[in-house]
Design brief:
The complex is a heterodimer of chains A (498) and B (168). Chain A has 498 residues and is of the alpha+beta class. Chain A contains 16 helices and 24 strands. In chain A, helix 3 packs antiparallel against helix 4 and helix 11 packs antiparallel against helix 12. Chain B has two domains: 82 residues, no CATH class; 70 residues, OB fold (Dihydrolipoamide Acetyltransferase, E2P). An eight-stranded antiparallel β-barrel of chain B has the order 1-2-3-4-5-6-7-8. In chain B, strand 7 and strand 8 form a beta hairpin. The radius of gyration of chain B is 22 Å and the shape is elongated. The chains are: A alpha+beta (498), B mainly beta (168).
Chain lengths: 498, 168
């Protein structure tokens, strides 16, 4: 068992500030790091000490293994917390930290590497009977081989181009009769789009949901779960609303998923905070997607329903202590929900919208959390993630959590940066969301009803009056007069990112 | 006096009847409106509207973003409001030249001056917040000039490459 008196946080923004908060409570000193363009953000002065990272690119700053380890050494930090994103799932970094005689707050490097290899982690699951999405990506892509594979997987199936992306060469096939024509069309399309007509097949899940299990393991072989989070509401494969409990999971499915998640932990000798992500069908079939070997963005949802501090648990595990609670003592109460406020243009396919937060205030309300790494006047830079803040609300029931979240969102003030505040409010008010009909297709399925409604004449009149009558603060810094012009011919090819 | 405003993309014309102190009366289309500004002790403001003897009181706040452009918050709503000068029709940009749809980094320029380009041809790659987008030509033409360089951080609405129509 080793005592940690001081840590370096190798991250930025809200998560760096959030980790500092727990360390304060535990009496642990903190060192934060910052790139030159982040020098005025709260995380750059949230800790007891701060180290400036030289350079302009991410590789020179927040992803610079040597500079971060050197900063820890220089400040006498005994451990490095990687937060999420950046180096949190980088096995080479975890190893370098350990090799430098420091503690990496996360799983051992070999465990990170093992779960980071998506194909290998799928194989591991298959070995221990954890279901993975049935699929076929064999060498032979001829009609007969594909047809056999589809039969084995069971309809409906998804036919995809191996080289694919953007939906080209992709077909949903409902039954055997439609299979070959779809394959021929997909093959031609794939050949045309990618110069490669290799196809693969996957089971197509109707109304899929993204549901993940929070797990925790210590160095003494104890493995527990802290319930699930449903994160089906996504745009561009990125979560925007997360909640727990899932509005639909049955106790039977939940316990089967818990057993699957914990058997993965036991098999790989997991240590620390982890999340096992599953895709769950409308029928309650669940399939392993991947394991995130770190703290998640949405961990506050779990904290709100369990009353536990997951960063504190991480610190305890890193110090070699056993997990603070046994499974039977981990209970949850009520419902919690998180929304991610993003600097983006929801009317233009969620295009990033960096800029300066000319107006920025988040409300403090009972039973809620507002976590952010910005203050009024901060720049949400194009160089980093578009997340401005996360808002978290608790309620005895899901309806109460939604209502409290609406209150939070309606009291938040964000000006100068296009953002998804109103869009999130429309999702929360959507009858299908309220009914718990949350699938990963939600944003696409309901695109029309989620679009910004045009304002009534009375509303426009009131806004016009406010424009004329309100005394306004501050002068402009940078906004070009032409920035509301948007031409439809700009074709955004959206590269998927996580 | 007329005032042309663009409110989150919707254009409205107010015909001001009376504007004195914190009181404003105007016509919008066929309807007459009357609003008052009311200052609270902390300096913040309410917008008051009286309809049939009942007051609607809503918090309002405005931040000046540029000359004749304010970010207006009214209750839960917040929008960018722009005032358009009479006669200043929307600037007619070349429909061929790509402009940045967002602020960000110019990652790569895929054409050179003198190049002949087809409609929809990728012209440049931009990047912001982990997202890469491809800007394409609005129509067939000739690349006249590169207006930005690779590695530049540019504002939204910046013309990246000027493309002119191919002279017949």
């Amino acid at each position: 068992m080793s005592t940690i008196r001081k840590i370096l946080i190798a991250n930025r923004g809200e998560i760096a500030c959030r980790i500092v908060g727990t360390c304060r409570i535990m009496g642990i000193q903190t060192v934060t790091v910052f790139a030159a363009d982040d020098r005025d953000l709260p995380h750059a002065f949230a800790g007891d000490q701060a180290v400036a990272l030289e350079g302009k690119t991410l590789a020179e700053t927040y992803l610079n293994h040597a500079a971060l380890i050197d900063a820890a050494k220089r400040t006498g930090a005994e451990a490095i917390h990687p937060g999420y994103g950046f180096l949190s799932e980088n096995a080479a970094f975890a190893k370098a930290v350990t090799d430098a005689g420091l503690i990496f707050i996360g799983p051992p490097a070999d465990v990170i590497a093992r779960m980071g290899d998506k194909a290998a982690s799928r194989l591991l699951c298959q070995e221990i009977n954890v279901p993975t999405v049935p699929g076929y990506d064999g060498d032979s892509s001829d009609d007969a081989a594909l047809q056999r594979a589809a039969q084995k997987i069971g309809y409906p199936v998804l036919v995809k181009a191996s080289a694919g992306g953007g939906g080209k060469g992709m077909r949903i096939v409902q039954n055997a009769r439609e299979f070959l024509p779809a394959v021929h069309a997909a093959r031609a399309e794939a050949k045309n789009a990618f110069g490669n007509d290799q196809l693969l097949i996957e089971k197509y899940l109707m109304e899929p949901r993204h549901i993940e299990l929070q797990v925790f393991s210590d160095t003494h072989g104890n493995h527990v779960h802290l319930f699930e989070r449903e994160c089906s509401i996504q745009r561009r494969y990125q979560k925007i609303i997360e909640e727990s409990p899932s509005p639909v999971l049955t106790e039977k499915t939940r316990s089967a998923m818990v057993e699957a998640a914990l058997s993965i932990c036991r098999t790989i000798g997991y240590v620390g905070a982890g999340t096992v992500e599953f895709i769950v069908s409308a029928k309650g079939e669940f399939y392993f997607l991947e394991m995130n070997t770190r703290l998640q963005v949405e961990h506050p949802v779990t904290e709100m329903i369990t009353g536990l501090d997951l960063v504190r648990w991480q610190m305890d595990v890193a110090m070699g202590k056993p997990l603070p609670l046994k499974q039977a003592d981990i209970v949850r109460r009520g419902h919690a929900m998180e929304v991610r406020l993003y600097a983006e243009d929801t009317a233009r396919d969620f295009l990033p919208a960096p800029g300066t937060l000319r107006v920025f205030s988040l409300p403090q309300l009972p039973l809620t959390r507002a976590e952010n790494g910005y203050v009024q006047g901060s720049e949400v830079s194009a160089s980093y993630d578009p997340m401005i803040a996360k808002l978290v609300a608790w309620g005895e029931t899901r309806a109460e959590a939604i209502a409290r979240m609406q209150l939070l969102l309606s009291s938040a003030r964000i000006g100068g940066v296009k953002n998804n505040r109103r869009y999130l409010q429309r999702i929360l008010a959507h009858p299908e969301f309220v009914a718990g009909n949350t699938t990963t297709h939600f944003v696409k399925t309901h695109a029309e009803t989620l679009a910004e409604p045009s304002r009534s004449e009375d509303a426009l009149a009131a806004l016009a009056a406010a424009y004329v009558l309100a005394t306004s603060d501050q002068a402009a810094v940078h906004t070009s007069a032409s920035n509301t012009e948007y031409s439809a011919w700009v074709q955004a090819e959206l590269a998927g990112f996580r | 006096m007329k005032k042309n405003l663009r409110i989150a993309g919707q254009e409205v014309t107010l015909e001001a009847l009376q504007h004195a102190g914190g009181s404003l009366r105007f016509m919008l289309n066929e309807t007459q409106y009357h609003f008052r500004a009311h200052a609270l002790p902390d300096g913040s403001q309410l917008l008051e509207q009286e309809v049939d003897g009942v007051l609607k009181r809503t918090r309002m706040h405005a931040v000046k973003m540029a000359a004749r452009m304010k970010h207006v918050q009214l209750g839960e709503d917040e929008v960018l409001v722009e005032e358009m000068l009479p006669g200043a029709a929307a600037q007619a940009a070349s429909a061929l030249s790509p402009r940045s749809p967002m602020p960000g980094l110019v990652r790569q320029i895929l054409v050179a001056p003198g190049d002949e380009v087809a409609s929809g041809q990728p012209i440049a790659l931009m990047e912001a917040m982990k997202l890469q987008i491809t800007l394409t030509a609005g129509g067939a033409g000739i690349v006249e000039a590169l207006l930005v360089a690779e590695g530049d951080m540019i504002a939204e609405g910046t013309e990246l490459v000027r493309i002119k129509e191919k002279s017949a």
